[in-house]
Amino acid sequence: MKKLFAIVLAFCAISCTQDNFNHVQEFENIVADLASPEFAGRSLYQDGELRAANYIVEKFNEFCTSDFVEKPCFQHFNYPLNTTRGDMFFAVDGKEYKPFEDYVVKEFSTGADRTMPIVYALEEKFYTPDNFAANIAALKAENSFVVLDYDKFHTLPSEGDRYFKYLKDLNIGGVIFKWSKKPNYFKARAFFTTPYPVVCVGPEFPADAKEATVKFQNEFIEDYTSQNVFAKIEGTSDSDSCWMFIAHYDHLGMMGRDNVCLGVNDNASGTAAVLTLAQYYSQPENRPELDMVFLWVGGEEANLLGSRYYVENPLFPLENIKYLINLDMIGDTPDMLYHEGGPEADKGLELFMEINKAHGYFPNPHRGELVDNSDHYYFAKAGVPAMYFESKGEFYKYYHSPADNLEHFTSESYKRIFEMVKEFIQKY
Ligand SMILES: [Zn+2]
Question: Which phi and psi (to 5°) does residue 195 adopt?
Fold first, then answer.
């Protein structure tokens, strides 16, 4: 903590001597705006995702007024999305559980209004890939909740979607997934529904509960419309090559009517950073040599659907992208800089690491394997030099929960990344 304080002081000297546009203040303002309850967690609830997209357009137009800036446009795409509606109620042996605090509803769950006995299927023997369905059928739980061990369930091998394959044909009353930690909320697999309710609980769930009551509604939307926001700054040269910045602006929305995930770190932070970068480079004195493309994608939380759609339907040839930078979750303390990319991004990564080291921005950079966890993924798979940055620190524990809010947010990582990116663009 002491070390962090020293870094913060040293850093203030750099960021406080910047241009008249106070980008750090703007960054914080945008994060606060996008994370306000008005946007209802930037999903389909109260049109929060669409309204966040409109907000990005407004901000971009307010910030970027030079005549070499192209006005933003939308790229629409559709997908099926399961949602929870109305009041949420879940009780075990007469004790009411608190939404998010004690349980979350799995994103593919149907609604229900029923009280049923509980049977347990926690032992290792249930989780054999070929016999899982038969093992569960033997419990004769047509009208019962079956308590499954979430970690063991996830050891079941599956080529495509593990949930769908194992849960779709079970003739049971419901599933209670017991997690080994407090369960996170997701919507990555909201594209199908189970014919019964599925609820996740934490490790404190009793080992001998008798019955549970569940009451909530779902709505399956066949053709939900989301949109990517695309904008461009024309560089001074007439080269086709360009820089690209990407951040997802959508988040998890609500669980039922009253429980919202505001998504400050994930990813109001990256959304705001791409806006302040656009502002910076749209100033005539900072105008880049190459074009700069800014893409704010929707549908990330629904399984990277916006970035995937863009890669399948690019608005200019993907080969023109000199380097793509994806910012997702940079509102945490700068303890560790997590990064990930394909082999094409290696050379750029070396430069990033040199810059990082020279300034002592992040003490612990850590490279992760390229996986489908954020919006660089489909670009990297298509051979684009694409790099993903995330800051991981004190607030990571609030990932995908309502506690990812303004109380657990700092702009310290953002300040460092902003400087790193500027130097990278100059030197690469
Ligand atoms: Zn997320």
Answer: -80, 10
Cα(366) to ligand 1 centroid in Å equals: 19
Ligand 1 centre from 85 Cα, in Å?
21
Three-state DSSP state, 216:
strand
Q: Output the CA 266–ligand 1 centroid distance in Å.
A: 5
Structural domain spans, the chain: 9-68+234-427, 82-217
Ligand 1 centre from 1 Cα, in Å?
Answer: 27
Could you tell me the distance, in angstroms and rounded to a whole number, from the CA of residue 6 to the centre of ligand 1?
A: 31
Cα–ligand 1 centroid distance for 263 (angstroms):
8
What ranges make up the beta strands (E) of 263-346?
A: 291-297, 321-327, 336-341
| β-strands 112-121, 211-233 pairing | antiparallel
pLDDT in tens, the chain (428 residues): 444 444 444 454 444 434 557 999 999 999 999 999 999 999 999 999 999 999 999 999 999 999 999 999 999 999 999 999 999 999 999 999 999 999 999 999 999 999 999 999 999 999 998 999 999 999 999 999 999 999 999 999 887 777 888 998 899 999 999 999 999 999 999 999 999 999 999 999 999 999 999 999 999 999 999 999 999 999 999 999 999 999 999 999 999 999 999 999 999 999 999 999 999 999 999 999 999 999 999 999 999 999 999 999 999 999 999 999 999 999 999 999 999 999 999 999 999 999 999 999 999 999 999 999 999 999 999 999 999 999 999 999 999 999 999 999 999 999 999 999 999 999 99
Which backbone phi and psi does 346 adopt, to 5 degrees? -60, -45
Ligand 1 center–CA 299 separation, angstroms: 10
CATH of domain 9-68+234-427: 3.40.630.10
Q: Is 335 left (phi over 0), alpha (psi -120 to 50) or beta?
A: alpha
Class of 82-217 in CATH: alpha beta
pTM of the predicted model as reported, rounded to 2 decimal places: 0.93
* Ligand 1 centroid distance, CA of 267 (Å): 7
